[in-house]
């Protein structure tokens, strides 16, 4: 895949557990080929975190049944303000 122009998104990408590993690996490769970066691979579920161009997420990753969510920070305690 050619380098995709456009803004990068920090995302969490997950797949149904029955998804073949080759589909997940191809999605990672497509992201890296487009100039993105895999920032973490999860073992508790089938998925990974990445910084990726929006275009590759729409064209390659979502086409194979992936759930794509924006990566966010969550806290368990209020900051006291």
TrEMBL record:
One of its GO terms (molecular function) is endopeptidase inhibitor activity. GO terms for biological process: vacuole fusion, non-autophagic. Coiled coil: none annotated. InterPro entries: PBI_I9 (IPR052471), S8pro/Inhibitor_I9_sf (IPR037045). Belongs to the protease inhibitor I9 family. This is Inhibitor I9 domain-containing protein.
